Amino acid sequence: MWRDMTVVRRIDSEGVALQRQGQLGLWAPCRGQEASQIGTARALRETDFIFPSYREHGVLYARGVAPGDYVRVWRGEEGSAFDPAQMRMAPLQIIIGAQSLHATGYAVGIRHDGTDEVAVTYFGDGATSQGDVNEAMIFASSYGAPVVFVCQNNHWAISEPVTVQAKHPIAGRAPGFGIPSLRVDGNDVLACFAAMRWAAEHARSGRGPAFLELVTYRMGPHTTADDPTRYRTESDVEAWAQRDPIARLEAHLRATGALTDEHVAEAQAAADATAKELRAACLGMVTREPLAVFDNVYAEPHTGLRRQRDDYAAYLAAFEEA
Amino acid sequence: MWRDMTVVRRIDSEGVALQRQGQLGLWAPCRGQEASQIGTARALRETDFIFPSYREHGVLYARGVAPGDYVRVWRGEEGSAFDPAQMRMAPLQIIIGAQSLHATGYAVGIRHDGTDEVAVTYFGDGATSQGDVNEAMIFASSYGAPVVFVCQNNHWAISEPVTVQAKHPIAGRAPGFGIPSLRVDGNDVLACFAAMRWAAEHARSGRGPAFLELVTYRMGPHTTADDPTRYRTESDVEAWAQRDPIARLEAHLRATGALTDEHVAEAQAAADATAKELRAACLGMVTREPLAVFDNVYAEPHTGLRRQRDDYAAYLAAFEEA
Amino acid sequence: MTEMTLGKALTAGLQQAMRDDDKVVIMGEDIGKLGGVFRITDGLLDEFGAERVMDTPLAESGIVGMAVGLAFRGYRPVVEIQFDGFVYPAFDQIVSQVAKLHYRTQGRVKMPITIRIPWAGGIGAAEHHSESPEAYFVHTAGLRVIAVSNPQDAYRCLRQAIASDDPVIFFEPKRLYHHKGEVDLDAPLADAPPMGLAHVVREGTDATLISYGAMLTTALDAAAAAEDEGISLEVIDLRSLSPVDYDTVSASVRKTGRVVVAHEASREAGVAAEVIASITEDCFHWLESAPLRVTGHDIPYPPAKLEKFHLPDLDRILDAVDRVLDRPNSLTEVER
Amino acid sequence: MTEMTLGKALTAGLQQAMRDDDKVVIMGEDIGKLGGVFRITDGLLDEFGAERVMDTPLAESGIVGMAVGLAFRGYRPVVEIQFDGFVYPAFDQIVSQVAKLHYRTQGRVKMPITIRIPWAGGIGAAEHHSESPEAYFVHTAGLRVIAVSNPQDAYRCLRQAIASDDPVIFFEPKRLYHHKGEVDLDAPLADAPPMGLAHVVREGTDATLISYGAMLTTALDAAAAAEDEGISLEVIDLRSLSPVDYDTVSASVRKTGRVVVAHEASREAGVAAEVIASITEDCFHWLESAPLRVTGHDIPYPPAKLEKFHLPDLDRILDAVDRVLDRPNSLTEVER
Ligand SMILES: Cc1ncc(C[n+]2csc(CCOP(=O)(O)OP(=O)(O)O)c2C)c(N)n1
Ligand SMILES: Cc1ncc(C[n+]2csc(CCOP(=O)(O)OP(=O)(O)O)c2C)c(N)n1
Ligand SMILES: [Mg+2]
Ligand SMILES: [Mg+2]
Questions:
Q1: Which CA distances in Å does C62 have to A111, A299, B53, C31, C57?
Q2: Are D129 and D10 in the same domain?
Q3: ipTM score of the complex?
Q4: Residue D104 to residue B274: CA distance in whole angstroms
Q5: Same domain, D178 and D218
Q6: Model pTM?
Q7: Which residue of D has its CA nearest to B80?
Q8: Beta strands in chain C (DSSP E)
Q9: Ion ligand 3 nearby residues (CB, 5 A)
């Protein structure tokens, strides 16, 4: 998992770099949250289905998406990057909290099907204020649905400190809905792994939903469009830098001798290779042709849209002639 | 308060009777919930502002509304019955849970104004599943707003038993949001009174919101349009009839000698008088003239609507001529 | 052919859809033991059990959001919204998720969700129980919008909506739930006309009267009354509000040259505005007078005692017919 | 007169409104220390403090619902919705409460709430950040809808919206936030034209081009380009989408006889449909060709790289102008 986190950090910094270079419209850095994401995602089975938010690059990595898939959406090429059925993961969700209900519905479906999969949803501390997330807990509890709610409390919702959303620990809300919860050090990858093991097992064994609050910190800006100096101090960030999830595990592994210079070199090489592939995939993306805007609005033929498409095609053709 | 409850029950049965006789479009009986309503409402100050749901006839009574105001809306004459500023009470709310946010906003306003009023909102067990009610608790907690949330858990949301909404006590949710709560016997008027005293005092003294769950039972149908025999048994209802809030207090008061036959006779007479006034007011209501449908859509002149009104007036005039 | 009410036809449609495909699940408030406040799901809990007939917690966003998750899992959820006015808490899930997920995923995730909405007024109900929100959904790309007006269409179109791989907002005219009509329960779905087609319910030559849902009944009454005055109205039931079947509509308008569009919903940016703007574009040279709207006013739905002054009725429709035919009418004297 | 960006004009408008009336409070996500993601509320926290500039928890229904409560208490809340696509969770509170409370209470409770929405696309943003939801609100009786297109109007209309006793949905064209213009900061509000008036931005004789918001800029460019071809376009900025100022619009249409309405929002039951249906009714005998719409397609807002194929641009507008003028155009060869 140290290796995973190292690669994810590299992916993340490549995303930032590509955005700076004008190759991406936007990027939401996950720096600092690698342990939360890798620890939990690695504790799942391949068959478990994940409903992420937008910052879960580490979760995408754990799912093994293709390099270009980290950036395809952020570049503005497509609305989603991979095949959800194949990756067993929904596309990234921008509407805060909406995906928590999707995971709950999916989990109700699992229960109907009588299989032992689990649905997992990731969201932030800010998201816990949305009605949808609370309704998701209520529905999940009511149906005893096998869903794990993962709240990455990274202390910020853009410029708002978590205290605007919650004056008390977020994990403390779930039990009120009849959902057992754990509050975990989100920068300790092993703790995150263990917590998800417990939560997934709880859900898998038919005991209903579980909730995890991973206490971590968003080291970077909210997105590349954000300027965090307007709302937080360097010293805040510094304090959390001391608890960097990668450095921390690295120190521990080095101390026990489990991590050698060769390991580190190998991981860096792998990270660089992934970043290179990602960059190449990004730069190689070909924007779809104009009429593609009409594709897949509907699954079945649609008379109104067909005519709009025809008219627009005629317009483009006339324009080219001219 | 025994007297209050007796009068409220009479008002309620008059509402049912008027509906049966075709004088009201609908009525939502509060039978069985008199203690919850009277107990809590009587513990408030006149200056406290109440945001009710639609079943709170007892709360309206405690506020002293005019007899016709119990039925004006149910008859379909107007969208609301009384002047909210004068009664310090919002009109009844049909969108489940919406009013909880209004109470929270109002309470934030109280806090800004630096006065010692309290906002109070009533809603049902079903309402606790709505995003709005959960958001209201989150906002109230975040701003430390002086609002009291009153959940009348009457065991049913139309045909759904409370277990569809909550497998665990509803009062147990509030502490997760940082809001202290009490779960009270909603058929014990003194307990309800005491609970609201505590909750209002808590909010009034600047300690933020409080939450009450009043465990009671809806003895009648959801509304006069409902047929509860489809989803609940007589024996269920019978068991709760044994805990009737009025009979219970009556037995107690009689035992202590605080209630005599004269008291009872006086209360019945008062109840009958109120019912009579209510009926007279109801039957005497005059529906507004057709063009009134255009009144008060906007507070300020509106060119589009003025024209629609003029056209409709011309139409009505032409129609009368013909 | 069986005679049954529109309500019972819907029940039969749901039942048949659930028998045809065990991925069809229905969900909503009070739809189980109670059979829904309008009894449309009556008997389905007994036949299909609580896993396929799900009473839900009281939260519309939750219901629709859960349906999205079930669709991800391969189910075909049918949602009942208890009354038209309670669909708004689910608006975000409908507009940002249900309508967009197929597009967002380049067609990889289908959203075969049907959202049934008992709809519109005229029943003397309380506030929020008589809304006509169809234009919101017509304006939302990615959705299909159906509004039925009779038992046969109710039975057929509901099955088609459920069978469609696209999300469908399905409006049920609640004031017609008890109206009876003949329904062919056995006609194979494959042979049925697509649900997107409009229906010329009555042929005529002087003007085209376009409507849908419960208002169609009023439109037909108006056409009958007009006939007594020697006016021949062609009446079209749109049935599909998105897409609108402009082939059928334009053919009629080109024939008659005069148009009235009637609906209960308020007027500004409503469905009638859409229909008239499109007709005007398609049939401008055939039009002999300005197409007119007869709609609810641009007001919140009024209290029950006043609703008759809001809802278009036979006479308001006939007045508009007089106007498009340049006959004397209520606005004859009004300067514009 | 001061030269400033549209964004700064809005900041100045908010500041002035808050100085004029201490019942004005502003609320939304990140509007405090950050000054909003677009910095429109920059500096207001420092001047007015946290009680009047409220950073809220992340929940739009909560924000608007709380504003309703504050309005009950006599406040005049100004809500910032962070992006157009995030208004939908608040839809129920807006449609069922904000729009209806004045009517419900026979005018006893006022809802002087202004809901500011950074609006529309063209900035290469992520999904849900480029929506044009104005038609939903135009269709909702009880609301007023304003859409500004330049710094002067932004400053004036925002102050008027806040001063209005009615709820106003206030659309700010986010791709013009940095556009500059002259603003008269000192003109008394009482002397200003009402915010409901449309504005003939450019006079012309051959056809009327109607638009609003950021698209107005494109419309003006189109008019300039048309002039080079000898076509004289009259350009109208609607400014108020509900109510629409049909006096101004119809006067122009009666003069030119030809109309194009352009907006970014999708077409079906959009604002252009409303405007065309109304114009056709009011000006039928003056119309020389069918009024046309140039709009976004009926698709979900596409990914950033494709948005230019969705948004109406100068050439699409000119093509429509050619059509209404019966000049050769892209559809000349197409059978209808
Ligand atoms: C419904 C909705 N409202 C507002 C936004 C704008 N927005 C995007 S991210 C964000 C903050 C989210 O904070 P949190 O949930 O803590 O997640 P984080 O970004 O910290 O990972 C906001 C307000 C949105 N995307 N969706
Ligand atoms: C948003 C919304 N959804 C659905 C309804 C329909 N409805 C009216 S009352 C009710 C049940 C409410 O139950 P509860 O909150 O327990 O209150 P009670 O009726 O028991 O007093 C429902 C589903 C509604 N009024 N509003
Ligand atoms: Mg966060
Ligand atoms: Mg209840």
A1: 18, 25, 21, 16, 8
A2: yes
A3: 0.98
A4: 26
A5: no
A6: 0.98
A7: D105
A8: 2-5, 24-28, 53-55, 76-80, 114-119, 144-147, 168-173, 180-183, 199-202, 207-211, 233-237, 240-242, 259-266, 292-296
A9: A 124-125, 154, 157
